[in-house]
């Protein structure tokens, strides 16, 4: 009996040592990961300030069910600023983050009642083209998701204050689709990422145009959710564009060479996505309406999708949102 319990204790101690001792020099608040005992399922247990990661019921990401979108005619046109940004491209060890230095690049409209100042852009990606995005559509993931996060600049003075406050944050999310040529503007970030291979490395970036990188689309899906990283604060209005950004295989493969940690041969920064969380009766609204005069089309309402696994694309066909091959 004695030796049995000793053995069990040892196993637990070993597991803790192997899996969750932070890398030297890393803050305790930074050692969460996307794998195993420090991964998404356990974020809420590690730090009392991250309790929402475990107990929150308005969490992000979600799976977007194409049959469960609500057309809302009160949604306005999304207005995304044209300003070029200066900032830093950082390998945070969790993701590739572009932090924005100035307060010029803003967005509003859509479901939003305030102006949001973009302070960071985050990139989540997978190790294959079938995983990577945080939000999924009809259970299907995209190879990458770019999240442009802003804080409410009308009510709050900075992002750390806003993320704890009502209507504090908003995020515009764009899924990626693999194409031959990729996106030239996104390519600039990919090129820069080559020199920030390891955690903590950063590179200055000047005059980057986010709006040029984005697909042109007036259509989106929106819901109220949370940050997808600790502490999972439920103060984020999500706006998911209905068109993807095009990235090439080469661009994705270069990003997949980034590492989570500090050395050669270390874990690659891939599959850094939080899996979808329950919707829990939240509304998922869209401004996509069938504008066809065709009676039959009207009857089909606005939420007809066809989802195919290989290449997902949000597109408009006769005013009807579809995901096509
Ligand atoms: C953010 O704003 C609050 C309130 O004005 C202030 O107390 C806090 O120090 C600011 N934080 C940062 C990181 O600037």
Automatic annotation (TrEMBL):
Family designation: Belongs to the alpha-carbonic anhydrase family.
Organism: Mizuhopecten yessoensis (Japanese scallop)
Molecular function via GO: carbonate dehydratase activity; zinc ion binding
Residue ranges constituting the Alpha-carbonic anhydrase domain according to the UniProt record: 30-288
Gene3D superfamilies recorded: Alpha carbonic anhydrase
Subcellular location(s) of the protein: Secreted
Annotated signal peptide: 1-25
Protein name: Carbonic anhydrase-related protein 10
Superkingdom, taxonomy of origin: Eukaryota
Main subcellular location: secreted
GO cellular component: extracellular region
Pfam families hit by this protein: Carb_anhydrase
Record flagged with keyword Signal: yes
Biological processes, Gene Ontology terms: one-carbon metabolic process
SUPFAM superfamilies recorded: Carbonic anhydrase (SSF51069)
InterPro entries per record: CA_dom (IPR001148), CA_dom_sf (IPR036398), Carbonic_anhydrase_a-class (IPR023561)
Keywords: Secreted, Signal
């Amino acid at each position: 009996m004695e030796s049995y319990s000793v053995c069990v204790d040892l196993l637990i101690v070993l597991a803790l040592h192997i899996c969750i001792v932070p890398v030297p020099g890393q803050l305790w608040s930074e050692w969460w990961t996307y794998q195993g005992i420090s991964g998404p399922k356990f974020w809420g247990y590690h730090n009392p300030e991250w309790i929402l990661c475990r107990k929150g019921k308005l969490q992000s990401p979600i799976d977007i069910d194409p049959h469960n979108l609500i057309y809302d005619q009160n949604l306005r046109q999304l207005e995304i600023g044209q300003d070029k940004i200066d900032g830093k491209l950082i390998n945070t060890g969790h993701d590739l983050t572009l932090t924005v230095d100035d307060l010029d690049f803003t967005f509003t409209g859509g479901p939003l009642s305030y102006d949001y100042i973009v302070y960071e852009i985050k990139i989540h990606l997978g190790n294959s083209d079938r995983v990577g995005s945080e939000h999924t559509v009809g259970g299907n993931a995209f190879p990458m998701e770019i999240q442009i996060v802003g804080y409410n600049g009308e009510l709050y003075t900075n992002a750390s204050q806003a993320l704890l406050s009502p209507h504090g944050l908003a995020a515009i999310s764009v899924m990626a689709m693999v194409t031959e040529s990729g996106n030239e503007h996104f390519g600039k970030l990919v090129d820069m990422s080559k020199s920030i291979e390891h955690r903590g490395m950063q590179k200055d970036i000047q005059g980057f145009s986010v709006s040029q990188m984005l697909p042109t689309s007036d259509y989106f899906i929106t819901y109220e959710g949370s940050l997808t990283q600790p502490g999972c604060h439920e103060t984020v209005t999500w706006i998911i564009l209905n068109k993807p950004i095009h990235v090439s295989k080469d661009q994705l493969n270069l990003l997949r060479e980034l590492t989570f940690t500090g050395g050669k041969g270390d874990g690659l920064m891939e599959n850094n996505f939080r899996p979808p969380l329950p919707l829990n009766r939240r509304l998922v609204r869209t401004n996509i309406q069938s504008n066809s005069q065709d009676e039959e089309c009207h009857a089909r309402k606005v939420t007809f999708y066809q989802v195919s696994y290989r290449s997902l694309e949000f597109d408009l066909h006769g005013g009807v949102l579809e995901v096509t091959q």
